[in-house]
Amino acid sequence: xxxxxxxxxxxxxxxxxxxxxxxxxxxxxxxxxxxxxxxxxxxxxxxxxxxxxxxxxxxxxxxxxxxxxxxxxxxxxxxxxxxxxxxxxxxxxxxxxxxxxxxxxxxxxxxxxxxxxxxxxxxxxxxxxxxxxxxxxxxxxxxxxxxxxxxxxxxxxxxxxxxxxxxxxxxxxxxxxxxxxxxxxxxxxxxxxxxxxxxxxxxxxxxxxxxxxxxxxxxxxxxxxxxxxxxxxxxxxxxxxxxxxxxxxxxxxxxxxxxxxxxxxxxxxxxxxxxxxxxxxxxxxxxxxxxxxxxxxxxxxxxxxxxxxxxxxxxxxxxxxxxxxxxxxxxxxxxxxxxxxxxxxxxxxxxxxxxxxxxxxxxxxxxxxxxxxxxxxxxxxxxxxxxxxxxxxxxxxxxxxxxxxxxx
Amino acid sequence: xxxxxxxxxxxxxxxxxxxxxxxxxxxxxxxxxxxxxxxxxxxxxxxxxxxxxxxxxxxxxxxxxxxxxxxxxxxxxxxxxxxxxxxxxxxxxxxxxxxxxxxxxxxxxxxxxxxxxxxxxxxxxxxxxxxxxxxxxxxxxxxxxxxxxxxxxxxxxxxxxxxxxxxxxxxxxxxxxxxxxxxxxxxxxxxxxxxxxxxxxxxxxxxxxxxxxxxxxxxxxxxxxxxxxxxxxxxxxxxxxxxxxxxxxxxxxxxxxxxxxxxxxxxxxxxxxxxxxxxxxxxxxxxxxxxxxxxxxxxxxxxxxxxxxxxxxxxxxxxxxxxxxxxxxxxxxxxxxxxxxxxxxxxxxxxxxxxxxxxxxxxxxxxxxxxxxxxxxxxxxxxxxxxxxxxxxxxxxxxxxxxxxxxx
Lengths: 408, 408
What we know:
Two copies of one chain form a homodimer.
Chain A lengths: L2 E6 L7 H16 L3 E6 L5 H12 L5 H8 L1 H16 L4 E4 L6 E3 L8 E4 L2 H8 L3 E5 L2 E3 L5 E3 L4 H13 L3 E6 L20 E3 H9 L7 H10 L3 E5 L7 E4 L12 E5 L2 E10 L4 H11 L7 E3 L7 E9 L3 H9 L9 E5 L2 E7 L9 H11 L6 E5 L2 E7 L3 H11 L8
Parallel strand pairs in A: 1-2, 1-9, 2-6, 3-6, 9-11, 10-12
Antiparallel strand pairs in A: 4-5, 7-8, 11-12, 13-18, 14-16, 14-17, 15-16, 18-20, 19-20
Helix pairs in contact in A: 1-4, 6-8, 7-8, 11-12
């Protein structure tokens, strides 16, 4: 008998039929003798409708009202699922963020959970009741509703699992798990059976959208075993675990891509101490996340070229920050390109295997793909290429690293 | 400068355009120098959708979940209106039932407000902020969301007005006020300028649906002047006030009808002490509201006929209660008729004017309408007639009492 938190995303609770299926799944799990808490998202599309309404009224909206409006979606799903479970003869009730409570900081629309007061909830679980928790939401110190940002229900589930010491947190979604590459692009992509938190973190932040990055960080910190699995099948999914729980480590876990970045190059920038701070300080103040940064050595000791990437949505904002008086920088000119893709290969195994990077560069070179920027970490290599090569690059790398499933 | 609570119903906030109009109306009122709090319903149709979902899952639903799901509609409207007001440069925020809080008893789905803790809200109003309160909802002693029953936002508004000592509570809706009769039936029906709480109470409970009965009771108890007016025009509406504020009292305020009752007759019932209690006790226990009751004197001292009305929706339930073992009653047989209408004439003036009742009976008799049951109070006469005569009876009475507007 295990203590399990299950989170069901928007497509898993898209309508009453889906919610009914979820209730039946939860019931089946309970009948195996487990203690369960469920965390739900809003019905697919519902939150988008609310966001549209809010945005139509007010571009620079009051995030407190935004959060209060948006949190209603999860409130509805939680009540409906609790009713279905009751219909199946299971004792159940809904819990809203402020009822548990999920205490958060005051960063409305992207709040962070500071504390989960789960004693009452845990008592209910231990008595055999199944709480259905509205995900994505919490309560601030000023007694107002906060939301945790897109995908925040994953974080709600992991935070709850950590708080009650769950044996496992299932993230039930519309895909069968984490794949070695996007199956829409790579036909030979395989479901990964086990992956480490570190790899999952890189996968999530490098473009695999199956889990919110923050939820993986939290799971890693609290050693909560995660399972990413489909709500619509009975197959096991991908387990995200500590490294010591993986017996045989693959060199590479997967290949990801992201089209969400844009490249900015500042040419002939005066090369003197403090220029990086002068450039990236104001960008950070404008809440623009800079990702890859490359600075060439200056050949004449006087000027250099600096290339970096920013979220594509923030490109115009970034350019105007650089062009503003806020930045005290001498340079010749700026070039920018919104049509780039970041391709990454990720794997714990690359720490102990030589030649992983050169294999990547060769594979891309063989296809005539020009590498614009390279960035590496201990378990990841990312390159920036022209966006039109995205699919070609992903498929080439998937094959080069031997990840393709054996064709029958 | 006055302190005003304005409540906007579902049709007044049906979509973003309507909500924008409401924001503009509230702004115009503020510019006249008033202090304002707004109470809102859910967008028209939204609550019905939620009720449909809940009902589809579970007929005998858990009312706590029902309330948690249903309350989301007002939560959304409150946030959206607060955002519109902010866009117009007005300081505003939404307040949910549990945030104020509106404390209620634990009768989920038809909870009664026990206490409104309005200090913080009042402080905000006095500082010039416009709070937008989610109507229809409160919080129970066990920290769960309650709802106040259909039309409950009227009650929210009046309770708030009473709590903060408002000078007036405006009920803004899709009609221009309270009419002498349903304008869809009587073309000469006129808007009433002023009406007493007592009359309004009878009008509401006898079929005029413009205000929830409970809200009128509460306004009367706390002497909160009400105005029923249209959200879509700038004309004054109907003021509901204490009797002493009405200089010239009309004999009759209006004619109402209700098709929501059914008639039950128990024939040749043994006539002995305690039969009424034996009959109506079990009906009350089954939560069936009995309205009109007529018992004939027994000619032989042994048996009598008893006629009474129940809500039409409860007819089958009432018949099965009477037929059950719960009732220890001797009678020959039961007759029932779901196709009856209750026609009422209402007016404070009838206390001091003779002949009001006979005028009613004559007017109906002249049109060949048979009166089945008569029930009177100090300021109201109701009769039960066959449903097919509804419109004819209302028009005949409206004319007989001289209520028709002068035709041009």
